[in-house]
Design the sequence.
């Protein structure tokens, strides 16, 4: 989640209250205050509320939440007379464009920083790393409409931001830091997206970089916004959030025509919601006027229709309202989660353990009775430990994770014994005897199933000891078993047995092969057994 | 005074013999010298006798020394064999010559000129030769012999033991010299004879040898405690597959297909695929336009191919939704404690796998207040008295909440996320009543309860730590 850095002075100026009150309210509006400094407050907002990713948006919401200014913010949009055309060749490259003209901007440092932070956070949250949506902000006074959004030749040259020489678009992808960072979004295409003005001057190469020509500074007073992308709703939301933030800065929004369609549309969406449904979901007993008031605190427009019906106007920048429940949640937040009367769910039900977990509990009880200490190792492990170090052949049914983080965690365990050997290895400086066991899920192919293993290490550990433990375990579990000579290389020949139940092999036990011991850094004889528990799950 | 049988025997013997050397005492008692001295020391500690230690040195001839004491030192034997002079070549034929020639020259008993050995005049008997007959420790000659390996000096410790008046009194009062009994026999127990037997007494000041009990892992114990609590509250347990396709792990939970949590850096992806369940088209429609739930949906595209791709479950909510799909009728309360997987580098506060407690409550007329009420009760029983609720966000719940508990020294600690499942999540499975859902990081609860700072401890178990962890009693 993005961390939004809020300038305290700017935020308090926009909100009209003191920073302490703001900081106390932020968590209850749905955010986490990460760091509080004298000049700045770092806040994490949730990904469903990109409209809060700036001091302007946060202040707007706070004013409502604190009752300073409630209800729907009104946006007046005059036509700018500027138009845009979109090249049909962009259809399979980056087809969607949103735009707006922003007039009467007077930005100081705090505002420029806030704008850049908002742009960056939107690129992350709405733009998915610029792939879905990318934003360009231009000094409108340096260029002149109508503008063209075209699929350009890759050899087209211009001076990108932060450079003083012309480069081809291909060179930008190869050499410019932003080009290298985002090249993978466009490099597969034959032609690249480009925005030019009426004189063919290049404003931007979306989603990579703007031209130096239109750099925004403190002296910029009129802005052209371009938002391009591959998903029309996301493009439109980004435009609206940016426009709403500019309005908070004191700017005026003007629309442009994109192939005849007016952008932006800052009108609220309307929904009719039910007061009783809201009370039913939240558990807050509400009347229509109360609900209306709470909605206004959250900056919705709201009007009582009748006892159970309220019409809601959803501000254009709210990207998260998909369902009536999203509105009801805002009512609950405005009401205050801590003020909601709570009670236990009244439903009568009878509890019951899952058969596999019940089996694990049984295994634990038996093994503890046999003086074994439980281990709870990871299920992620490696082929090296599971097979090579155990002198066992690789299990072709083991699942490999596609992008492991370390060599130690490349597969999901198919056996538990190797993890116990690893545990003995970690504990080799600890007092002997050590008797350990573990039970839990393993995975073969796509099947998760239960297994258990136990190991004992001390100077006198031998085959008879582990045979006795296997026998005791099976007797207590009421497992009728037989033992046949095993060929498992993890154990010493002549001192190993396979456990069979109803003619099917379910486990193995014996004295660990000294080569295996030494491989794990162990110096004393260890004995062990491992058992597949699939057949013993209750109800099977 | 409690005396062992051996101490009593020492006193009894000493009382008869009067002052006595330890060796004699050992002979009288027919016991090893070392043991007798040890018993005497125990008596001395109680003031019943005194021990006087004398250390003497004794020079003992080695086997080689014994031989030369009889036959003379090699140089003396060689000298005796020379009649005035002898060619060196002749002399070296004698096997003793190797040792002897050096000494003959050192003692200035011979002169060698042009390959001929001449015996010198005025040869006397040396101190070393005298000492060989009667070695006296500490003398230069004896030291010389020790260097040549002919003599060994050993220390002899002798003890003179004298009974004290207190010891005498105890001895005169009579000592029970019968053998002490360690383990009672069946006959001794049944006949009652044990009452009259001298039972060996054990020292209670000496700590016993440690034994380590078998035990359930401390973390598992906390998990079992949570399970018991949920059973008491009427919850049924569910369990499921570690491997899930993206459909169940993400899509069915209304996580958009371009959601960042699905990306490679957050999730363990597998090459395998699992087919989509019947009714998957409803999920597609919900993502694209909300289906018939009254939702707008996410818009954009939704690919069934993406849904088939397998991941290691990133949360057990993927099991909850499948459990609900199989059990769509209210009332229902269910939970699971399951390993979940996040693609994190291992450090003290991050692990790639950990336990998540996942729970659902479904019934008609449930509301958000019930969810909060459940948490107050649950956390209260877990020992966290103060609970607060912050708005949260999860793609699959609305309203959403992050419950936090107060921990002294840490402040408000977030333990998980919860909410009411969105219609977009429940409607496709024919569920038309509210489902309260939550997921808690139980490792965090374990850390708080056990005072751990390093999460790794829970999975890479130090056996000393498990052995030392107290069993929780409440």
Sequence:
């Amino acid at each position: 989640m993005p961390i939004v850095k809020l300038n305290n002075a700017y935020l308090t100026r926009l909100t009209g209250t003191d920073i302490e009150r703001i900081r106390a309210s932020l968590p209850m509006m749905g955010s986490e205050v990460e760091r509080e400094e004298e000049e700045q407050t770092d806040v994490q907002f949730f990904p469903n509320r990109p409209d809060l990713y700036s001091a302007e948006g946060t202040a707007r919401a706070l004013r409502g939440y604190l009752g300073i200014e409630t209800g729907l913010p009104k946006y007046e949009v005059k036509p700018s007379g500027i138009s845009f055309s979109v090249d049909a060749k962009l259809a399979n490259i980056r087809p969607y464009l949103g735009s707006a003209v922003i007039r009467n901007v007077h930005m100081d440092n705090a505002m420029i920083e806030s704008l850049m932070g908002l742009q960056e956070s939107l690129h992350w949250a709405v733009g998915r790393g610029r792939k879905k949506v990318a934003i360009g902000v231009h000094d409108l006074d340096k260029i002149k409409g109508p503008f063209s959004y075209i699929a350009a030749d890759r050899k087209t040259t211009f001076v990108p931001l932060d450079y003083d020489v012309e480069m081809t678009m291909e060179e930008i992808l190869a050499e410019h830091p932003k080009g290298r960072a985002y090249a993978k979004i466009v490099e597969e295409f034959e032609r690249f997206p480009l925005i030019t003005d009426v004189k063919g001057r290049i404003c931007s190469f979306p989603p990579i970089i703007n031209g130096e020509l239109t750099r925004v500074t403190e002296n910029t007073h009129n802005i052209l916004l371009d938002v391009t992308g591959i998903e029309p709703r996301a493009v439109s939301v980004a435009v609206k959030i940016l426009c709403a933030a500019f309005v908070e800065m004191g700017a005026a929004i003007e629309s442009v025509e994109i192939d005849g369609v007016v952008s932006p549309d800052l009108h609220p969406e309307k929904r009719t919601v039910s007061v009783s449904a809201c009370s039913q979901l939240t558990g807050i007993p509400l009347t229509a006027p109360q609900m209306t008031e709470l909605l206004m605190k959250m900056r919705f427009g709201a009007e009582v229709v009748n006892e159970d019906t309220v019409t809601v106007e959803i501000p254009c920048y709210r990207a998260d309202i998909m369902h009536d429940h999203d509105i009801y949640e805002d009512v609950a937040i405005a009401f205050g989660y801590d003020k909601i009367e709570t009670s236990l769910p009244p439903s009568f039900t009878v509890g019951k353990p899952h058969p596999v977990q019940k089996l694990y509990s049984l295994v634990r009880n038996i093994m503890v009775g046999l003086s074994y200490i439980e281990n709870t190792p990871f299920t992620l492990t490696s082929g090296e430990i599971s097979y090579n170090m155990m002198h066992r052949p690789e299990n072709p049914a083991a699942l490999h994770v596609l992008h492991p983080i370390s060599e130690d965690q490349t597969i999901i365990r198919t056996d538990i014994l190797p993890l116990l050997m690893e545990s003995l290895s970690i504990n080799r400086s600890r007092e002997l005897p050590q008797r350990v066991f573990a039970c839990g899920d393993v995975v073969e192919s796509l099947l998760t199933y239960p297994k258990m293993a136990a190991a004992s290490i001390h100077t006198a550990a031998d085959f008879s000891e582990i045979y006795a433990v296997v026998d005791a375990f099976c007797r207590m579990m009421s497992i009728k078993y037989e033992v046949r000579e095993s060929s498992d290389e993890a154990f010493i020949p002549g001192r190993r047995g396979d456990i069979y139940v109803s003619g099917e092999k379910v486990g193995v036990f014996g004295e660990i092969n000294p080569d295996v011991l030494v491989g794990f850094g162990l110096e004393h004889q260890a004995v062990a057994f491992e058992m597949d528990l699939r057949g013993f799950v209750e109800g099977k | 005074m409690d005396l062992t049988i051996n101490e009593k025997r020492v006193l009894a013997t000493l009382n008869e013999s009067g002052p006595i050397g330890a060796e004699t005492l050992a002979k009288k008692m027919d016991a090893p010298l070392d043991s007798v001295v040890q018993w005497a020391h125990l008596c001395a500690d109680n003031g019943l006798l005194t021990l006087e230690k004398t250390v003497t040195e004794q020079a003992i001839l080695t086997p080689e020394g014994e031989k030369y004491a009889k036959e003379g030192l090699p140089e003396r034997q060689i000298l005796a064999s020379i009649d005035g002079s002898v060619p060196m070549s002749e002399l070296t034929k004698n096997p003793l010559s190797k040792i002897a020639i050096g000494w003959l020259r050192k003692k200035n008993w011979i002169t060698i000129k042009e390959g001929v050995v001449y015996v010198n005049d005025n040869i006397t008997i040396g101190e070393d030769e005298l000492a060989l007959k009667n070695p006296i420790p500490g003398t230069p000659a004896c030291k010389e012999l020790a260097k040549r390996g002919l003599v060994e000096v050993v220390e002899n410790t002798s003890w003179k033991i004298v009974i004290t008046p207190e010891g005498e009194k105890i001895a005169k009062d009579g000592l029970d010299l019968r053998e002490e009994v360690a383990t009672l026999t069946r006959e001794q127990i049944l006949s009652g004879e044990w009452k009259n037997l001298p039972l060996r007494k054990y020292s209670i000041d000496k700590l016993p040898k440690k034994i380590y009990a078998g035990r359930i892992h401390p973390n598992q114990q906390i998990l079992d405690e949570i399970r018991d609590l949920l059973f008491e509250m009427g919850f049924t347990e569910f369990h499921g597959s570690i491997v899930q396709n993206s459909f169940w792990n993400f899509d069915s939970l209304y996580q958009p297909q371009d959601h960042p949590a699905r990306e490679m850096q957050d999730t363990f992806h597998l090459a395998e695929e699992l087919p989509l369940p019947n009714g998957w088209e409803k999920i597609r429609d919900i993502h694209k336009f909300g289906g018939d739930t009254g939702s707008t949906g996410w818009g954009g595209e939704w690919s069934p191919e993406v849904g088939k791709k397998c991941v290691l479950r990133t949360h057990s909510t993927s099991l909850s939704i499948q459990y609900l799909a199989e059990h769509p009728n209210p009332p229902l309360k269910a939970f699971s404690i399951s390993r979940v997987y996040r693609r994190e580098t291992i450090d003290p506060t991050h692990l790639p796998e950990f336990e998540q407690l996942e729970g659902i409550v479904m019934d008609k007329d449930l509301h958000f207040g019930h969810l909060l009420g459940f948490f107050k009760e649950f956390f209260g029983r877990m020992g966290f008295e103060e609970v607060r609720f912050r708005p949260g966000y999860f793609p699959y719940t609305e309203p959403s909440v992050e419950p936090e508990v107060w921990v002294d020294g840490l402040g408000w600690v977030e333990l998980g996320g919860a909410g009411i499942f969105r219609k977009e999540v429940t409607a496709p499975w024919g569920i038309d009543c509210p489902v309260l859902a939550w997921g808690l990081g139980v490792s965090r609860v374990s850390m708080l309860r056990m005072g751990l700072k390093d999460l790794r401890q829970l999975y890479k178990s130090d056996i000393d730590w498990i052995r030392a962890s107290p069993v929780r009693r409440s």
Observations:
- Chain B is about 35% helix and 20% strand.
- Chain B has a mean pLDDT of 90.
- Chain B touches chain A through 99 residues (CB under 8 Å).
- The first strand of chain B starts at residue 20 and ends at 21.
